[in-house]
Amino acid sequence: MVKPFVPELVYVEPKALEYSLGKELISKFEKMGIEIRETTSHNHIRNLPGENHFQQYRVAKSTLVVGLRKTLKFDTSKPSAEYAIPLATGCMGHCHYCYLQTTMGSKPYIRTYVNVEEVLEKAEQYMQERAPEITRFEASCTSDIVGIDHLTHSLKRAIEYFGESDLGRLRFVTKFAHVDHLLDAKHNGRTRFRFSINADYVIKYFEPGTSKLDDRLEAARKVAEAGYPLGFIVAPIYLHEGWKEGYKVMFEKLEALLPRHATKDLTFEFIQHRFTKPAKKTIEKNYPMTKLELDEAKRKPKWGKYGIWKYVYTNEEQEDMKQTLGDYLNYYFPEAKFEYFT
Ligand code: SF4
Question: Could you tell me which CDD domains the record lists for this protein (predicted)?
């Protein structure tokens, strides 16, 4: 089992020490014997240990910056939520296709924001503006928030905040199984806890540093027992030898584990693998040995909303995926809600 994340190096912004969470975290890391450095702003972090890009990238992925969220303007997060709620940025995982490699560029370290109450106050403002409509917040747009929350408990705080709010709903997705501290959170059914799952082969070769499928499924079972509304994102759906069998086994295992009551309010999202040319370049730099298929000639170009071509599977392959996974879904979880394939 992948161990819960512990940073190898910590940076702290002085202002973070004015917040109780900041003080608590730094004292915890001191006791753990972790090296702590000061920085006026994460933007000034230079000279991470390591002799080349490859090494520095790996050090950065195990470096945690304890700081403040300065911009309190939330990004939109359509279609699954109205807003992205910023609790952290970055991730310790090493998924070869991770979108954070392009969005975070030269700053792949992890940042946690200790001014959680200010972030929640801003969320409250957004909710009031839309009242009496419900406002949904997505907490995993810029990080795998569950993966670091055993250290910070800021997600837990947010879950309980929305648990008391009539106007807000929270959702997030994770590839980590370290959920125990979230099981007793007073969520009131207002947080949808989603797991990103995949065939064993895909997790084994392309998602190092994250929890294995069996561990994610076991975590999902516990989350279901704790009464959270549950969801699964099968992503990225990746064609590999034996993929039909691989995804079938994934559904079978899931069905065998989940308690009956959880299968009634269950959502599924299906996302096929895609890449862009800049992403391909970054992947080849960060994971030069990857087995990931990134041949434009084998894919269909699709004009993306960010003004850049992305390479998706051919129409035929997409149909095959939709049909195959759709059949499994209907067979194993006839009551689940299928949200989209993209
Ligand atoms: Fe990226 Fe998610 Fe993998 Fe973390 S777990 S590296 S956020 S894809």
Answer: Radical_SAM (cd01335)
